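Researcher: I'd like a structural prediction for the single chain below. Treat it as a standalone chain; there are no partners to consider.
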Amino acid sequence: MKISLWLPLVLGLLAGSSAGAQTLSGTVTLYTSEVLPDVQVQIDGFRKLNPKVDVKVFRSGTGEVTAKLNAELAAGNVQADLLWVADPTYFDGLAKKTLLEPLNVRGVRAPSSALYGGGTYAEVRKLYNVIGVNTKVVSTLPKGFADLRKPEYRNKLAMPSPLFSGGALATAGTLSRTYGWAYFQSLAANGLRIEQSNPITTTKLIGGEYGAAILVDYSLRREAAKGAPIAVVYPREGAILVSTPIAVLRSSPNKAAAQAFVRYLYSAEGQANFSKLDYLPVVPGAPRPAGVPAAIFTLPSADAYIAQNKADISARFSALFNLK
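Model: Treating it as a single chain, here is the predicted structure.
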């Protein structure tokens, strides 16, 4: 089911500069695939700082958000000031076309390792694709992605669709590059089901419709903390880092407020908010959420591979699982 919302919201922040604080006003529009209540937490922080900035939010899956922006770019009528979705390859394409504004991260501790595209888009927090297990449905925990091919998980597996979810595209690209398409063929033979999104898959995993699912770690930790029978498995082969950058569109008529939005996410308060929401902050020294391993071993990035083969990945996956 498509979730697509326009929410006029009041927020603001004081943009720091060497000359002092600048009062922000006007409208900023954020296009995002991020979980709306989580975005709201950050918005609430802004509202305390500058209530003169009106913010509109369009929220949907990464594929639908980027399709909307592509249509607006083609029509020469871009409505977004900020883009925040789980597809670094899309940002890279925008950066190469000089459609992104260099980020202004003066006065905040934005790690250089989190800045990409010549500083035009950036990671503000981290999340990983791991394996969630409903312990009431499956008694044996898998140790890694390879184990999901075993008989004990037959007809009990699920993951979101890479046609809708940028995080799922990272899964499809990373695992097909690591194991080849034979891996997903074996999962299909083992009864892997494809749901539209991470939230839908998580809900069905908690409800016992599935015993195991490849999902983002933060939502699994949240549900386990609420008492759901969920175990979080960080695969022995390595978790999949899901890049979810944010950028300011060069066409933005309110770059000052848009840039301030990004800076707030790097502030001590913004990073602490991420931790409270079970995301892993990127700023050194920021608090870590409970339940996160001290060190997370990850599979090598497949971003370049996905960028070169996105259409083929989508086509192969669609054919294998009869997706439309």
